[in-house]
Amino acid sequence: MIIKNVQLYPIDSPMIELGYLVEQEGKIVKIGPMSQLPDKDFGQVYDLPNHCVLPGLVDCHCHVGMFGDAIGFENDDANECSDPCTPHLQALDAVNPFDRCFQEARENGVTTILTGPGSANPIAGQALTMKTMGSRTEDMVLKTPSAMKFAFGENPKRVYHERDETPVTRMAVAAIMRENLSKAKEYAEKTRRAGTDHEELPDFDAKCEALIPVLEGKLPAHFHAHRAVDILAAMRIAGEFNLKYAIIHGTEAHLVSTHLAEANAAVIAGPLINDRSKPELAEASIENPGILAAQGVKLALCTDHPETPIQYLLLTAAMAVRGGMSREDALRAVTLTPAVIAGVGSQVGSLTEGKDADLVIFAGDPFDVTQRPKLVFINGKAVVS
Fold first, then answer.
1. CB–CB of 334/271 below 8 Å?
2. Is 202 helix (H, G, I), strand (E, B) or coil?
3. Residue 268 in contact with residue 246, Cβ under 8 Å?
């Protein structure tokens, strides 16, 4: 397949005003200006003057397939509220690939998502990264697990206050994290010594086993944190245990942007299209992403679906531009940066030779919120046409 006479947004290189892209066997095999178009038959031809091509959009924090659309508790599989520490839970066992929101994601150009547990528990479980096309989760997955979900602030406090159980303070939330990370560290050390010093293996502990990759830096911690004080607490605990991490939401991240930039911390900002429905969101503004980007913070934008429905990811980017973010930074924040944060930057997120042919084609400006994509491809197959 070849798409030609289009404006190309590679993301990882300068825009090509009039160019072409070649797909073969689900991969991008060639991209360049029309002046360098090879004289060769590439099969199906899409000749699309006045159209633009973007890489498939990536949302690296949402709960698609975890909260049932138009259904209540019966199909809410994102929060296991019976235990404040559940790192052994896997989104793979909960995602419903038949949720209609996957279709709405595809129709609006969102081709890859990181979806997983909610924020009821201080340690909630394992998220995964997947494509939005398919009928069996295992076939849609790009990486599992791709993050361990942690949560600070109001959500765990509210959930366990209602149950009259720990934690009900920020002190207890942090203590639960420290306690279980320390247990996992000790468990890993005992397991290591058992293989060298003839000591007995410790009893199997599923929670510790799940946290060991986090301690080893193989699995990033994704910290739910809105308020600046919670962002700093997340950074503190990450520093104590030398964790690789990202801050999710970061509603007040602009207040500590210099600290985030100095730590080279990633922020997954959003949702931007919602009301100030709780105290933690009192300072919410669409200017936050632009301030962070200007400070050099590694920034992605998210919908936090269903807080903002997944189909409005590009609208979220447009709102960030309205709030002062550059168009280039906003497009990167819904393509390549979230792909890197989700651990799949080598596969998706930019129009790069060798990457998956996940493409979104618009008849005009992609920031024109009155239009939907004209064509969407996932792995080179048209899923919207």
1. no
2. coil
3. yes
The residue among 181, 262, 248, 256 whose CA lies nearest residue 217 is 181
Task: Report the alpha-carbon distance of residue 110 to residue 130 in Å, rounded.
Answer: 11
Q: Which residue has the tokens 């973007």?
A: 54
pLDDT in tens, 9-66: 999 999 999 999 999 999 999 999 999 999 999 999 999 999 999 999 999 999 999 9
Q: Are residues 62 and 122 in the same domain?
A: yes
Q: What would the DSSP string read from start to end of 142-167? A: EEEEEEEEEE-SHHHHHHHHHTT-S-
Measure the CA–CA gap between 267 and 246, rounded to whole angstroms. Answer: 6
Core vs surface per residue 71-89: b (16+ CB within 10 A) or e: eeeeeebbbbbeebbbbeb
Domain that holds residue 340: 57-348
Pairing of strands 52-55, 359-362: antiparallel
Per-residue tokens: 47: 């000749």
- pTM recorded for the entire structure: 0.97
- Shared domain check, 359 and 336: no
Among candidate residues 88, 8, 85, the one with its CA nearest the CA of residue 46? 8
Same domain for 68 and 129? yes
Q: Are residues 303 and 319 in the same domain?
A: yes
175 and 156 within one domain: yes
Distance CA(362)–CA(375), nearest Å, equals: 7
Domains held by the chain: number: 2
Which CATH number covers residue 143?
3.20.20.140
